[in-house]
Amino acid sequence: MSLQEVRTDFSAISRWIKPQSTLLDLGCGDGDFLEYIHSQKEVQTYGVEISDKSVLACVEKGLNVIQQDLESGLALFENQSFDIVVLSQTLQTIHKTEAILKEMVRVGKEGVISFPNFGHWSHRIDILMGRMPVSKSLPYDWYNTPNVRVLTIADFEALASKIGIKIIDRVVLHEGKEVNGFANLLGSLAIYRVQSA
User: Fold this and answer.
1) What is the DSSP pairing of strand 82-88 with strand 22-26?
2) What's the CA gap between 140 and 161, in Å, rounded?
3) What domains does the chain contain, in order, with CATH numbers?
4) 149-185 per-position pLDDT tens digit
5) Using CB atoms within 10 A as the burial measure, which of 78, 152, 170, 178 is most buried?
6) CA–CA dist 141, 145 (Å, integer)
7) CA atoms of 190 and 197, how far apart (whole Å)
8) How remote is the C-alpha of 95 from its chain's centroid?
9) What is the pTM of this model?
């Protein structure tokens, strides 16, 4: 993978990952993040993915991957068995949101979660105009989206507080640049570093 092909959240996530740590990527897709983080930090990586095609792509890249549906939980893994557990742009595709977030912070000493922010101003305008948003961060039409939920920064922070997840740090991006003020309005991608409260 070339540097130009790296998703903008990869470098933001990598700043929280220590070299030689153990990392579990939930919903790892074809392993792009696992490849990226291994090359940047030399971490010991593992992925969980349900798609046959994506699992095969991981195996062909020599990555450690387990084929499993995240909705069934992470019972395969013991408490605190990884330094960090990553759920990168997958949260919005999961039905059992609370359960997977609780499992993340059980299995990992820390977790990193990224998701597209539905509260971005452009999405609000689309809704006001009577249409579901389509953008770089939400690139699907309503009828072919893999997303089962849409959420905002405010929604995630309220849920984290409700289910006992402590937010350690947050980075909000728009078009690869960090957003500091009015994050829920101006940010299109949110990235959180969390742990069990």
Assistant:
1) parallel
2) 30
3) 3-196 (3.40.50.150)
4) 889 999 999 999 999 999 999 999 998 899 999 999 9
5) 152
6) 6
7) 20
8) 15
9) 0.90
